[in-house]
Design brief:
Elements lengths: L1 E6 L10 H12 L3 E6 H9 L1 H10 L6 H11 L6 H9 L8 H23 L8 E5 L5 H14 L5 E4 L6 H9 L5 E3 L6 H11 L7 E5 L2 E4 L18 H9 L9 E3 L2 E2 L2 H5 L15 E2 L2 H15 L4 E3 L12 H8 L5 E4 L6 H9 L2 E5 L7 H7 L5 H13 L3 E3 L1 E4 L6 H11 L10 E4 L2 E2 L3 H4 L8 E4 L11 H7 L2 E5 L3 H20 L9 E5 L5 E5 L7 E4 L2 H9 L6 H11 L8 H10 L3 E4 L2 E4 L5 H13 L13 E3 L1
Helix pairs in contact: 2-3, 2-6, 3-6, 4-6, 4-7, 8-19, 13-14, 17-20, 21-22, 21-24
Amino acid sequence: MRVAFVVMPFAAADSPSLAAGLLKSELAERGITCDIKYFNVTLAIMAGARDYERISKQFQSASLAGEWIFSQQYYGNLISDWDRYDREVLSHPLWGAGDGDREIVRRMLDLAPAFLKVAYESSDWSRYDLVGFTSTFEQTMAVMSLAREIRRNHPRIPIVAGGANFESVMGRALMEAFPQIDFVCDGEGDVSFPALCEAIRDGGSVPPGILYRRDGVIIGAPRAGGFTELDALPDPDFDDYFRVIDASTPRMPVSWIPVEASRGCWWGQKAHCTFCGLNGDAMTFRQKSWRRVAAECARLVGKYRPDSLQFTDNILANGYFRDLLPHWAAERNATPKFFEVKSNLTRAQVSLMRDANILCAQAGIESLSDPTLALMRKGVSAAQNIATLRWLAEHDILANWNVLIGFPGESPREIELQFDIMRKIVHLDAPAFCGVIRLDRFSPNFFAWRELGFSSIRPMPAYRHIFEMPPERLTNASYFFEFDHPGLAASVSAASPLIELCDRWRARTVPRDRRELELLPHVAGNTVAVDRRLCRAEASLRLNATEGSLLLACDVPRTPEAALAQVEQRHARERGNSASDALSHLLEAELIAEVGPRLVTLAVMREHVRAELSATAATGLTPDDNHEWRSEWRTT
């Protein structure tokens, strides 16, 4: 048996598909040959890597521009045209796009017919006993366009679709609308998809987890829970991807290869974040043994020599801090890595991440407001989020994070307070996104929208321009939803200065080894705070022992009472250096911030400076002065 597995636009072209690579290996174990068609790379070559990356990674996701482009190939102007799409979607005040983005959509729209012709004619589809498509993010209408062409010319080849866009009711709704799809794999396909291939080969019955048609009716046995024995999975096979990349002229850039260490979310099992719809029906956390992860990574690195490894895990397993990360740190693994983490990290854990060569982290930070974080059910404080951002900066780990506003019950005053906090931390990594939340299927905001304070929800306007469906089916096929609630307009208005600040922050380019607010050892041995933050005159501040101790005390967020008690006990005998006066000075200089009920240090403190501060705090004296030390600002 021979299977074609197809990866369509707009999947990222700078890395292979983990789902396709894993299923190819699983089929090989059953004696089934599989060819992966990376047609996303084909379009990236035709369009240029820059345009393709912009639309596949950086567009406002709710505009669904990639879906609309191929919907136009499928329906023509039957349900939409450029003017209506531009007016109702790209010009939407919350979910729209910029003028430059419009030009990219138009260029890609012009390329789409030629691309589909190349994709279809590049393969002899008659060689295959089954064609499978994966669809996550904006791939569905590209899938349907090519699948329709295959069905027209090869009506007896079974066509299967799966991936996040076909999970639960979405799969049934899409199958009802597109007759060229014979089977839908609902949920994780590690068992069901290979079993379906075997059933087609051997004439067996359709396995659980697969929707199929019988006498015009869509039926399917209930699927089992998520796959649990992750160590039993084979290594993914990315050979097809690298063959395409190596043959491209000029050679397409490859940013990373994906690796899977776990599935689900251990935090979501305890308290599902209200906005998160990532896991569908597979929230249960499962992980590979650390030895398996280490061995698999070594094999993949040895075979493909990637620039970096991007772990697809929703959240880094806590247990890996005890075994996997120390293993990587001990062997000085040179391959850079990316993980998503929860922001309740310790400084020691961040240091271990750096030793393990985790150079980029999705920090799980979405707000710097304690009341808003409570609405999200994040289980972390705003001060802890800031401490985590600073620790990542101190260890030269790139922090990827967001600021989400627009939750029901969120006070505009909290958004204003976030602005005040964020203008103080512009020396840290800027948020990748700042704006109004989406409402995603599978999130608590979707399932319990009334209880959580939304007054209405409905599919994003873009869906009306993409699928020709009656309203109920369109709702079932949609993943992104727009919404109303009584406080939305006030939140959007209050967020305008915050969004503008974040735009300016992202646009500024500063060397990562030159943080704009950090502590430096003075030539005479005294620690100095240098402040070059956005919209400020450059200044420096010489620190006395009491101030240094306060910065150390608030390295981990503390209440003012706890921080002062710790410092006053240490410096009880110092003359003229009141801890409360020192704290007032540091708050005024914005080297420490009061965030909710806690204080947190803002200035970057690298390890050698921390050691100097600790030594000074231990003696209670500055290195070159055993008399009273007066801190002074010097503006340059």
